[in-house]
Specification:
The complex is a heterodimer of chains A (232) and B (327).
Chain A (H helix, E strand, L loop, with lengths): L26 H16 L9 H10 L14 E7 L2 E7 L5 H8 L18 E4 L2 E4 L12 E3 L12 H8 L9 H13 L7 H7 L10 H11 L8
Parallel strand pairs in A: 1-5
Antiparallel strand pairs in A: 1-2, 3-4, 3-5
Chain B lengths: L4 E4 L3 H10 L3 E4 L5 H6 L7 E4 L8 E3 L5 E4 L4 H6 L1 H6 L1 H8 L4 H6 L2 H5 L6 H4 L42 H8 L1 E7 L2 E6 H4 L18 E7 L7 E7 L10 E10 L2 E10 L6 E2 L1 H7 L6 H11 L12 H17 L1
Classes of the chains: A alpha+beta (232), B alpha+beta (327).
């Protein structure tokens, strides 16, 4: 299924400031250029066992741009506004929003951790509300506005929450960081959530950090509070 | 995740019709239970009816003092609603003690009522489980049953505890579940909605074929009462209750006039402790009275291999909550 397709339009987001959108070689573009069959041999963990063989030809075909891909049987078109840009994707009903964002839209800043709503790595905003994208179907979101970590920075300027995470060293390995930041941005915009440390810790408890950077994450969130954009 | 037919309903009538059009169909609201269980292949609907566009996101005050909640009101919006915060603090506290910010943003009122159990043997897809595969047995009886298994309302067929915090508060408040199906709408008392496992644990609720929850209506708040939710768990946040209590109490002239107590984490359904309530009414609050009420609540409790601690823990959840409320 679509879970293991390589992106049809990997870097098409026009306002995406992610380094992955740059033409320079990156780890991801290098890995993608190897092809899924190479990954299956050298990095078996990247493709679930038993699906590697099925995924390889699908990945090769998926190099075709999205506009040339006809609606396959059982698929439907979902129109989204992703980080301010209109995007359309053809997906089967069982395509999960997280997988579509990463693999169809090429926005790989949103991470897959537990895939069951328990870790928060996949947190993004749907119409301004933070949700676990691993527990949503893409077809549920036709017409919705999606904001991912790639949409936080504006015109090359980092969002105050991104600045604060940098300044406070609020990460170690970084895998949970985009989810942490997306939760932080939503929490700081929500006047119903208390401003004290205990309230912030509770509100951020859906984002697990295995490195244990919680102390610095809390410091970053609280310091970003004073720099948040007044109108959101 | 397996393939399934997907349809999106614009109103309740269409949702029910779509649901009735195929066998083995599921309504999809927030998806936090359904999609989780579909990913691990425990729920395998052939068709899914997405009801997120149905206009059931209102919270309304009714003329008789009750509050009617649309089935699609999110757990976050319900917990933060001014009327709920002011008149039903026990419900706001219960909601905010459950899950995480992101999950509460997705999870709905109707969906939370329909939440499935967290028993590992139900979720693992292979162990004997009468809920998942009727007649296959119960691996939790005699298995690992420390945290998400009950001491009240169990049977030899199933001992899984009901996981919801919201439902515990609703059981204390008193509520009505309104459902709509092919034959029209009807009301089900909240206390009658969830079923004890008995020898048919696969039947968890009073819904008939193709019926959908449209509203949950809270009984009018008790004037002059105080209420609170007290939850004990393995960690301070984002964990299911080992034991919890939702308590509403009204004193007049130093005497307890009304008391409503419901328990979470210890029962196979949201557990109304009427025996404990009866101990309290007409009495002056004392520590000894609270302990007697707590003991009455667990009089019929049956401990499993690893969860005997839930009997004193559940009693303490009652005593502590009462003590704080009358202090």
């Amino acid at each position: 299924m679509a879970d293991h397709d390589i992106s049809e339009t990997p870097h098409a987001c026009p306002s995406c400031p992610s380094p992955e959108a740059a033409p320079a070689p990156s780890r991801r573009s290098f890995l993608m250029s190897m092809g899924a069959s190479g990954l299956a041999v050298t990095g078996g963990g990247l493709i679930p066992r038993g699906q590697a063989q099925a995924a390889a030809p699908a990945a090769a075909e998926a190099q075709v741009p999205a506009t040339a891909v006809p609606l396959a049987p059982g698929e439907q078109t979902v129109n989204l506004v992703v980080n301010g840009a209109k995007r359309s994707v053809n997906v089967p009903p069982n395509a999960v929003l997280l997988d579509v964002v990463r693999e169809k839209l090429g926005l790989t800043g949103t991470k897959k951790g537990c895939d069951h709503g328990q870790c928060g790595a996949c947190t993004l905003h749907v119409n301004g509300t933070a949700v676990n994208s691993c527990l949503s179907l893409a077809v549920m979101h036709d017409g919705d506005e999606i904001t991912t970590i790639e949409g936080l920075a504006q015109d090359g300027t980092l969002h105050p929450v991104q600045e604060a995470f940098w300044a406070h060293d609020a990460y170690q390995c970084g895998y949970c960081t985009s989810g942490q930041m997306m939760s932080a941005v939503a929490i700081l915009k929500d006047a119903r959530i208390g401003r004290d440390d205990a309230s912030v810790r509770e509100a951020m408890s859906g984002n697990i950090c295995r490195c244990g950077a919680y102390k610095n994450i809390l410091a970053a969130v609280q310091s970003a509070r004073t720099n948040m954009p007044k109108v959101s | 995740m397996r393939h399934f037919e997907y349809s999106r309903a614009g109103d309740v009538g269409q949702a029910v019709a779509n649901h009735a059009a195929m066998q083995n169909t599921a309504f999809l609201a927030g998806g936090t239970t359904l999609l989780d269980l579909m990913k691990i292949d425990v729920m395998r609907p052939a068709a899914v009816v997405d009801i997120n566009r149905v206009a059931l996101k209102q919270i309304e005050s009714l003329p008789d003092g009750r509050v009617r909640i649309g089935a699609l009101v999110s757990n976050t919006d319900l917990a933060r609603h001014a009327k709920v915060v002011a008149d039903y603090p026990v419900l706001a506290e219960a909601l905010l003690s459950g899950a995480t910010t992101q999950l509460r943003n997705k999870a709905t009122t109707g969906g939370n009522v329909m939440q499935r159990v967290r028993c590992n043997y139900f979720r693992d897809g292979v162990s004997p489980c009468n809920k998942r595969t009727p007649g296959s047995g119960c691996a939790a009886v005699g298995g690992i049953n420390r945290s998400v298994h009950a001491v009240l309302g169990t049977s030899k067929s199933c001992i899984a505890s009901h996981p919801s915090d919201m439902c515990v508060a609703m059981a204390a408040i008193g509520a009505t579940v309104t459902v709509q199906g092919p034959k029209g709408t009807r009301d089900i008392a909240f206390a009658d909605f969830h079923l004890l496992p008995s020898d048919t644990p696969e039947k968890e609720h009073a819904l008939m074929a193709d019926e959908m929850i449209t509203h949950v209506t809270l009984d009018a708040p008790l004037a002059g009462a105080k209420s609170a939710y007290f939850k004990l768990r393995d960690r301070a946040s984002y964990q299911f209750a080992l034991a919890s209590s939702a308590i509403i109490i009204r004193l007049e002239g130093g005497v307890i006039k009304q008391a409503r107590i419901a328990l979470g984490g210890v029962g196979t359904k949201p557990w109304r402790a009427t025996e404990a309530e009866a101990q309290l009414v007409g009495q002056r609050p004392t520590p000894a009275l609270f302990e007697a009420a707590a003991a009455a609540a667990f009089k019929t409790a049956v401990a499993q291999t690893h969860n005997a601690y839930k009997i004193p823990l559940g009693q303490q959840a009652i005593v502590r909550n009462l003590s704080t409320l009358v202090a």
